[in-house]
Amino acid sequence: MGHSNCGAVKATEGIIAKGGKAGGHIDSIVDQIKPEIQGLPAGHTLSDVVLANAKGQTERLNSQSSIVEEAVKAGELMVVTATFDLATKKVTFVA
């Protein structure tokens, strides 16, 4: 689940803009978010990135964990994408 005004997403956009690295363990988080940002068209909004990141994380969870993948295939588990708006407290599920 992504959330509005996400600091990690904002920080990643800043790091990309500067062409640098955050350093330390933060780089592993940035490396997960960066492909989602780079896949968006110019002029995207923070909300666009939050949604793209949430979708990307859902895809990775479904494909990179054999336990999750097997449970999904067996119909025992469903992993879905959602976003949470901090201001309205509204959760939006994404198809």
Explain the overall architecture.
The chain has helices at about 5-20, 25-40, 45-65, 65-75; strands spanning about 1-5, 80-85, 90-95. It is an alpha+beta fold. The chain has a single domain, classed as Carbonic anhydrase (Beta-carbonic Anhydrase, Chain A), CATH 3.40.1050.10. The chain has a 3-stranded mixed β-sheet. A hairpin with a 4-residue loop joins β2 and β3 (about 90-95). The protein is globular.
List the helices and strands and how they pair.
Elements lengths: L1 E2 L3 H12 L7 H13 L7 H19 L1 H8 L7 E5 L4 E5 L1
Parallel strand pairs: 1-2
Antiparallel strand pairs: 2-3
Quick structural summary:
With 95 residues, the chain is an alpha+beta fold.
Shape: globular
Largest sheet: 3 strands, mixed
Oligomeric nature of the chains: single chain
CATH superfamily: Carbonic anhydrase
Structural class of the helices, strands and pairings? alpha+beta
CATH C-level class is Alpha Beta
Q: Looking at CATH, which topology would you report?
A: Beta-carbonic Anhydrase, Chain A
Name of the CATH architecture: 3-Layer(aba) Sandwich
Estimate what percentage of residues fall within beta strands.
Answer: 5-15%
Average pLDDT, to the nearest integer? 91
Return Rg in Å.
15 Å
Spatial arrangement of strands, main beta sheet: 1-2-3
Number of domains: 1
